[in-house]
Amino acid sequence: MTINLSEMFLDPAILASGPAVGWPITLLFSLLLVGLIACLALEEKIHAKKSIIAGSFAVVCLLAGTLCGVLSFEDIVVGSHEIRCPSGSIEVDFANPVEIEYQDNASVETTQHFAIVEGDGDAGDEQGHAGEDHAGDGEDSAHTSLHVDGHRLRTPVYIPGIDWSVIAIILGSSLFVDITSKSGLFSWIAIKVTKASRGDPLLLLFFYGIMTVVFSAVLNNVTAMIIVGSLTVVSLDKLGRREQLLGFLLIEGLLTNIGGLLTLISSVPNIIVGTVAEISFVTFFVKSAPFVFVATLITLFMGSILFKIKRLKTDTEKSEARRLVAGFDENDGVESWGFFKFAAVMLVLFILTIATTSVLPGISNLGMGFVAMSFAVIMLWRYKSDVNQFYSAVDWDLLGFFAALFVVIYVMEHAMVLHAIGNGLQVVLQDFKASPANQADATVLLFGSAVFSSVTDNIPLAAMFGSILHDLGTPSDSTLWWSVIFGANLGGNLTPIGSASTLVAVTIMHKHKVPMSFMGFVKAAVPYAVVQIVLAVLYVVYVLPYF
Questions:
Q1: What is the DSSP-derived secondary structure letter of residue 100?
Q2: Same domain for 279 and 177?
Q3: How would residue 428 be classed by pLDDT, with cut points 50, 70 and 90?
Q4: Distance between CA 370 and CA 380 in Å, rounded?
Q5: Has residue 26 been placed in a domain?
Q6: CA-CA 20 to 30 A from 312: which of 105, 229, 363, 467?
Q7: pLDDT digits (tens, 9 = 90+) for 236-293
Q8: Does residue 177 sit within a domain?
Q9: Are 146 and 134 in contact (CB under 8 A)?
Q10: How many separate domains does the chain show?
Q11: Does residue 183 lie in a domain region?
Q12: How far is residue 212's CA from residue 223's CA, in Å, rounded to a whole number?
């Protein structure tokens, strides 16, 4: 018997879209998410590390997800490759399951392991086996994707829920920076920057702020924060201004998310929404650069005022600062010039490789996490017999927190919590078609995406909002796309868990004995975030329509 796959998938009797989730279950998991946020806010009163709090909620969410039937425990197919053709043109003869027949009589020899996806062609959305088929998107299908070869793999349900790329980037970058700092390179750079500022705290703040934005635009935000944060600590220690470390690190953490708006590839939400909206790289830069420039200056000026980071005024202060800076010797921290030069070359290569990962053959498939870990391994060879000193310095609490948080968000997606948010948004925006540039809709969407991005992973949220706007037929020149882009990025500045880079900034504070709690961060960061988001609304509503 020969079965036409497209007909089989569109048959309502066979179509399966996963377990249905009722609103009581969605409400239950929404409350769990609120509980996690509340416990993190009360971290100091609970006297528990972030990893323990998030890990406990991850355990509860996984157990609840299993008992409520919202999680899938089927095997996955790995190592397969994709065959694409127009929808309805693939037929499988189950009497001879190793043969796949096309309407043009072409054939491909393969194994019995394959997965079929109907719809927009996103590889790997659904996976299965002969006789264990999964549904696709349905009647809007433009083509069929058939994944052949590979093998079936049973893995714990929480493993694919963790964004291992982020974990690898944090671990690899941290190890790389720690080892590179042993060469004296960071101390050398920090002293050079400090000398350029002539010891003036405000100039130093602007130098590091601009460096943060530029690094965040071309590197991963986490990597940018780790590098700039390390340099900042050295500079302020040299100047004897360690009391200003809180202000510098907080401002730099906030600026990573502003720098992440500069180009199409600066952050994952940019890539997701920009691709769906068909925004080109050049168009993205031209439209976002004015906002990034203004928002950076405003953030730096606000930081200088709120944290009382001022320019040196009197001649006595200036002469004392010049005398102090003149006494700095950038060569003091260099023990081996050979290792120094090697570390300098590796740092340049690291930045260039991270910045061009998406276009490098082979490496583009492995991702930035692979790049960070690879450079860490190369640098570890310098201390090959004494690597434990670097392993013990890794912030395992940070890594554990991220892993657990990803698991919680993964369960929330399956429990339709994010889908419920999207449905609410769709109701609010249901009349936008009459006015694609409606100011109220753009404002609501930007504020909404910012608020939700501050407490959930902005990657699935951006994907969900982008999909909703696409389904509603939003034109590519609509400002609603930019509302999602700005909101998803800037929302990370509202809370320390809103983005990985702000959490890294808090971690650097703790490492250097600067007290900063969850609520302490919120209180300090909200004024900046509110100004940035309001500025973004004004920019999207009143400026972008004229580009």
A1: E
A2: yes
A3: low
A4: 15
A5: no
A6: 229
A7: 888 888 899 999 999 999 999 999 898 776 777 887 788 778 887 788 888 999 999 9
A8: yes
A9: no
A10: 3
A11: yes
A12: 10
